[in-house]
UniProtKB/TrEMBL annotation:
It comes from Polymorphobacter multimanifer. GO terms for biological process: phosphorelay signal transduction system; regulation of DNA-templated transcription. GO terms for molecular function: ATP binding; sequence-specific DNA binding. This is DNA-binding NtrC family response regulator. Keywords: Activator, ATP-binding, DNA-binding, Nucleotide-binding, Transcription, Transcription regulation, Two-component regulatory system.
């Protein structure tokens, strides 16, 4: 992390585009903000847009703005994120989830430094420093035809790679101390044995999961010294999960119960049909039904966001998007 901070110090004033990579929850947005704060643009706007959190048909308007009457509901003109970030920094989070049609428009804007509002014909010159972030393997996405290689070359001028928390367990005590101090009164403290257990935990959700754990611990044990014995009730279980669209780690009923705990009880009861020599099962339909139920439940629990749903389901965002298209599921489903 010291090396990453040094790299940020060196490139902060460069106008070149920066691509920040790393798993979800590893601090990509923090790195982007630090790049802006360390630059000469620190006094100018810092505008962020999560590409995975905006419906595909609204993303162009969010990015470039729109004129009054451009589409149903556009009762007045609106400035886009590019215009709002003029002379400052534009941060595009989860850029790997951007639809291909929008990728072409972003590429043109980066090449010309000119944007046009939806429904408008007047070119608007913008001067922004672009920082983008993704937890998607963009080279693999290019191979699958989901991301443009020419756009990657535009975004990936300077790359900063954020490592997963599991690769830097020595940072965990420092991060825990920081979160304990910033979480507000009353403070908590961890015994040495408890901290050792935290350093051995996999932290699949990375720094974000660690921060949530500290907040949860403080809520349950305000002002206390946390022992090792208290941790099993506070750490999230890592047993049953859904990986690559398949159920792993137990029966369908038990996995459904576990997922219902996470998703707030939005999954219907599920039981696997028994195989009988006289009656087969439609395995393809069974898998499709399971995928439908889990994806819809995850979308419901995450307010329709692709990024959050993919994290719940243990999928890459591009994989989830492909499944949703195949199953005709929309983010609002």
């Amino acid at each position: 992390m010291v090396a990453i901070r040094n790299e940020i110090d060196k490139v902060a004033d460069s106008p070149a585009s920066v691509l920040i990579t790393g798993p979800s929850g590893s601090g990509k947005d923090v790195a982007a903000q630090l790049l802006h704060q360390k630059s000469r643009r620190a006094g100018a706007p810092y505008i962020a847009l999560n590409c995975a959190a905006v419906a595909a048909d609204l993303l162009e308007s969010e990015m470039f703005g729109h004129e009054a009457g451009a589409f149903t509901g556009a009762t007045r003109a609106r400035t886009g994120r590019f215009e709002a970030a003029h002379t400052g920094t534009l941060f595009l989070d989860e850029v790997g989830d951007m639809p291909l049609a929008m990728q072409a428009k972003l590429l043109r804007a980066l090449e010309t430094r000119v944007v046009e509002r939806v429904g408008g014909m007047i070119p608007i010159t913008v001067e922004v420093r672009l920082i983008s972030a993704t937890s998607v393997d963009l080279l693999a996405a290019i191979d699958r035809g989901l991301f443009r290689s020419d756009l990657l070359y535009r975004l990936d001028v300077i790359r900063i790679e954020m490592p997963p928390l599991a690769d830097r367990p020595q940072d965990i005590p420092l991060l825990v101390e920081h979160f304990c101090l910033t979480a507000g009164a009353p403070p908590i403290r961890f015994e040495k044995a408890a901290m050792a257990l935290l350093m051995d935990h996999p932290w699949a959700g990375n720094v974000r999961e660690l921060k949530n754990f500290v907040e949860r611990t403080r809520a349950h044990h305000p002002g206390e010294v946390i022992t090792r014995d208290a941790l099993p009730r506070l750490l999230r279980p890592t047993g049953a999960s859904v990986v690559g669209g398949s159920v792993v780690g137990g029966s369908a009923t038990r996995v459904t119960e576990t997922m219902n705990d996470v998703l707030g009880g939005t999954l219907p009861p599920m039981t696997l049909p028994q195989l009988d020599p006289g009656h087969g099962v439609d395995l393809r339909q069974l898998i499709a039904d399971l995928e439908q139920a889990y994806i819809r439940a995850a979308l419901s629990a995450c307010g329709g966001t692709i990024a959050g749903s993919a994290r719940l389901l243990g999928l890459q965002r591009t994989t989830l998007i492909e499944k949703m298209r195949r199953l005709h599921i929309t983010p609002s489903a």
